[in-house]
Amino acid sequence: MTSFMIGDVSVTGIIDLPDFQIPMATLFPASDSGRLDAERHWLSPDFLMNGDVRLTVRSWLLRVSGRNILVDACVGDHKERPHRKEWHRRVGGDWIAALAENQLRPEDVDVVFCTHMHADHVGWNTRLENDRWVPTFPNARYICSRVEFDHWQAETAAKDAQAAPNCFEDSVLPVMQAGLMDLVDDGRELASGLILRSSAGHTPGHMSMEVSRGGQSGIFCGDAIHSPIQMVMPEWSSAFCSDPDQARVTRYALLETLAETGDILVPMHFGGKAHCRVKPVGNAFRPDFD
């Protein structure tokens, strides 16, 4: 379990899927494996193995000023996800057990910040109870971008009525209907020194969180960066980005800022140590996990 500090903020990774693999050509359609030959000595096997990108699916738990703040909620259990066999109708509650290892019950979570509304980031927002989806964290305020919510609400309204429920229907709408969700805009402060920033591209309303406390800073970037591969090749946007060009602009800006400031990059899907600093190398970047 990865834990570290940003100033006086305790940060702990809560893992749902420790090793989720996607063929590189599938995840990064513009990729050229040969361009990574000089980097394989450190990319393999933790981040790239036999042509597959290795990802971890995790949430980040922040303890700050007596509050428990969760960044993203992974895949969840019992969800209909037939396009991903690793996610489909999962049973076991391993993520809840990992939360318990940190001496927390779902009732102890004060805030759930959703960087965006893809299925591997909102799944544990809800749990199945008596054949109904109910909020997993009954005492929390769920925070998400107004732009993001409006986008997926429109997408859901336009989908075929016969199609299987999507993650917006089973993991977002029940929270809104329970009155626990707040829609926010760029610049919202979750707590002193925790600021939400627009980082659109991966999705229309994607947001990141800047944390600056006790003389240290870091950025929880959601899926603005999926893998260290995108530090070597920042131009490679994922196949799941709604606007690949905007995602590329957002990613370059993020990496350039972190390379200049020396602040901590905290992605959702890196394996291993899971967070790093950013070093400029030529026209690209490398992670510094020290």
Distance between the termini: 17 Å
Q: Count the strands?
A: 17
Give the overall shape: globular
- Going by CATH, the architecture would be 4-Layer Sandwich
User: What does the largest sheet look like?
Assistant: 8 strands, mixed
- Average pLDDT, rounded to a whole number, is 96
- Reported by name, the CATH topology is Metallo-beta-lactamase, Chain A
User: How many independent structural domains?
Assistant: 1
Look at the structure and give the CATH class: Alpha Beta
Rg from Cα: 18 Å
Spans of at least 5 consecutive residues whose pLDDT stays below 50 are: none
- The percentage helix is 10-25%
Order of helices and strands: EEHHEEEHEHEEEHHHEEEEEHHEEE
- What would you give as the CATH superfamily? Ribonuclease Z/Hydroxyacylglutathione hydrolase-like
Number of distinct helices: 9
Helical/strand content category: alpha+beta
